[in-house]
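Record type: ASSEMBLY
Status: queued
Input:
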Amino acid sequence: YVLTQPPSVSVAPGQTARITCGGNNIASKAVHWYQQRPGQAPVLVVYDDRDRPSGIPERFSGSNSGNTATLTINRVEAGDEAGYYCHVWDSSSDHPNVVFGGGTKLTVL
Amino acid sequence: QVQLQESGPGLVKPLETLSLTCTVYGDSISSGTSYWTWIRQHPGKGLEWIGNIYYSGTTSYNPSLKSRATISVDTSQNQFSLKVTSVTAADTAVYYCARTGQWGDPFDIWGQGTRVTVSS
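Status: finished
Output:
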């Protein structure tokens, strides 16, 4: 199972960033999203398509439909500049597997 | 507050065995409420799942490592470990340990990562 993300997304401060994660019938899976700032470990920002862990701003939201899941960041701030990864668990093959998208670098202009 | 801490050599010679340990603080591996995971990130690249272990010792691995990886657990020390045999430069990466609740759940807690370089 393959998850496809755009390598980069650029947005001005205060605008909305949308980061997509494409996969075959991804709507049938729970999608999780991580933020990774340079030199740091990933941090969970959205889980189960659209839920936020405690401490994650409401500006972060998620959706999942058809073949595309989307992480939306409203009112983007300079501190949101980071890599973002989507993640699913895939049991469609003989061997259940964890799959990550290739990552998207969010640049705040 | 749950914290994970990786430890192990930062430099490994080619064809030798990479060995890392993750110590869990603030949670008990024996509680059986979580799976314990190793993930790596090659320089400048994305995340790669290596495998999981449950407190009972049940494991699951990424087939791409071709059986070179072994994960074990020591509940008495509240630690779990990773061994990767016959390493090459392609195993140079930052290695993370992480926690997930159940199969299908997100990785909610991550260690800070440890950089391992394979070089003679």
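Annotation: Chain B has no helices and eleven strands.
Annotation: The first strand of chain B starts at residue 3 and ends at 7.
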